[in-house]
DNA sequence: TATGAATGAGAATTCATTCAT
DNA sequence: CATGAATGAATTCTCATTCAT
């Protein structure tokens, strides 16, 4: 199911609804969110929602797709400023967490709501998310080609581990009220763990020989 | 455990219902799961559910609490077999992912359902989860005390980053049908990234001089 | 449907249950009352109730029948102390309201719950209640036979009007928390209205000649 | 009226539902009445009920309030046609019972359902009912001021006794299938009892010298 | 007799979606 | 395009009653 293509409707209203939905989903959660509440918050009638979106699911999916598109573009632009793959990893972490910081509600929805249930993670092929992860895998392969990252490092594992580390950190940051760490500090620490963890030529293997 | 102290009720039925709920929640997701489906699957009447649980939410919470208790006990027992904090990290990763491997449905519920924003992660003080994360922080502090882990490493960041990495990996593993990596391989790679990433005395800092 | 005839059961428990039911019905109302609450209050198991009563309705009906029997016996004994029919009317009022005063919960149930709904007032032929009303009609006829009460007074109307007057007064008395009138004062006023209202030889008719 | 201010909704539907509810409540009793049955009888969907009323209770309360308003207006208009307080009493009785005669279902609901203890008579401050009773008290005071009614008569007792008498009579009339007395005959008898009972200067006191 | 765990029919209410205006 | 009243399917939870112990 793909979202409504704005045929000849005012794109302004489409975005109003999306923005209202972001707030309502973040506040209540997807299943507790009421379409009528989104409508009220967007300043339109309930029925109007259905001129722009197929149904409630479609609103969430549109949010995710449009949101991920921005994230991907933004993060790609950031890492392209760097040539060193190891430094790209740091850039990625910073860009990711900066986006979370500046789009708390949106971040919460992507993290929490979209991965929430079978409904979305199973039935909906999450192309955009995979594309995002593959940016990381790409950096790793690039580093390996340049001999900067160990050959035995699996890009498919790094991409998930690194994303998971950032994502858990941002969940914490998003959900907690009083924040202990600056989110950029966290970005730097996490990227440093991974850079040290995967770069080539740092002597003995980690786990010993058990 | 839940409100109902199982006075003279058979604890067997309590567990039957939990096990049925695990299957149904894993299959449909919490919000799509029907209490009557859990009842049917548990081989009891709908009303019987309410002799053992306050309501549908309570079933999920009991699943989480009882499940996390087992995870914590199990993981604690595993890492206690090791004295070297760095090796404990590897043990943790292996134990965590082995549990996921052996309790797929349960793992999916803990990961996916309990993350459901408002209702559970906001209103529900997730003590058990925090206790689990603090096992990791404890290992890190231990390693720092022994001079094995760098002093500038924040245990509060490592615990979330490490858990997030494992968790994302297991989400992938749980949700994907055909599996590329052995989950134990993933455990070893991820723990190696972190061990190399945080251990003391491995030369130049990670990020270079930016 | 008639209530369970105590075959070979302990009558003590039967009364315990009735007394508990009186309290619970008075507190919650019949439909809001829970059988399990009556059981708890009576100090028996839920199932035990059904050894003494057919069902929940049967408890209410038994309360009414047993209660009315006492009321009728008591009121009959009172009016038999008097020979003058007009004075019997006053005795009736006093006895009725004294019973209400001393059995508030029971009075509330008879007034409020039993006449409450179709269920009881339509399906259940209320013999006891009619018997009670007919005590009044009997006094009126006696008074008419003695020439003390006007011949044009309809006993069937007086019995209902008089009972209704007392009953409304006692409803007020039962439901109000702070009481303005002594209930015996009310008994005397009301009986006086009716005695003056129906006795023979008091000159011009009431309503004028419209 | 109820919470829902009928903004753009058709008030016609509000009344359809009320009328359907009157029939269903009269037929089944409040607790046995099904919302879906009211909906069917009103020719609307179940959910539509909830656009006009908060819940099932609210329907009953609206019925009572709207019904009592009509009764009060109607009875006030009737007694205002008379100047003699004693004749007003007769007018009141006639108007009251005429309303019962012409609105059997509604009368039954007001009498039987609203008397339902806890929920309505205790928690719900029954202003309208008290207002109605005070019409009677007002007439009595007026009669006392003119010397037509004895000074020792308590208006607060008369109002309840007189209402109770009429109400019990109409309960009988509403619930019985074959009717012995014309309801207007009853109105005249009852008002005559009370007029004779309370008017000034009719010789010896009622109760004799007990 | 007494128990109380188990039953399962039953009902109020919600809310995504539609469609006449 | 926009509205929002109307729809009605769908679901949790309750509680009188039963019956194995």
Chart the SSEs and their pairings.
The structure is a homotetramer of 210-residue chains.
Chain A: H1 11-28, H2 35-42, H3 46-52, H4 56-79, H5 85-102, H6 104-113, H7 118-121, H8 127-145, H9 155-175, H10 183-198
Helix pairs in contact in A: 1-2, 1-6, 2-3, 4-5, 4-6, 4-8, 5-6, 5-8, 5-9, 5-10, 6-9, 8-9, 9-10
The structure holds a DNA duplex (21 and 21 nucleotides).
Question: Can you give a write-up of this model?
Answer:
By secondary structure, chain A is mainly alpha-helical. The first copy, chain A, has a domain at 61-198: Tetracycline Repressor, domain 2 (Orthogonal Bundle), CATH 1.10.357.10. Chain A contains 10 helices and no strands. In chain A, helix 4 (56-79) runs parallel beside helix 8 and helix 5 (85-102) crosses helix 6 (104-113). The first copy, chain A, is elongated and about 60 Å long. The termini of chain A are far apart. The relative contact order of chain A is 0.11. The mean pLDDT of chain A is 87. Chains A and B meet through helix 1, helix 5, helix 6, helix 7 and helix 9 of A and helix 1, helix 5, helix 7, helix 9 and helix 10 of B. The structure holds a DNA duplex (21 and 21 nucleotides).
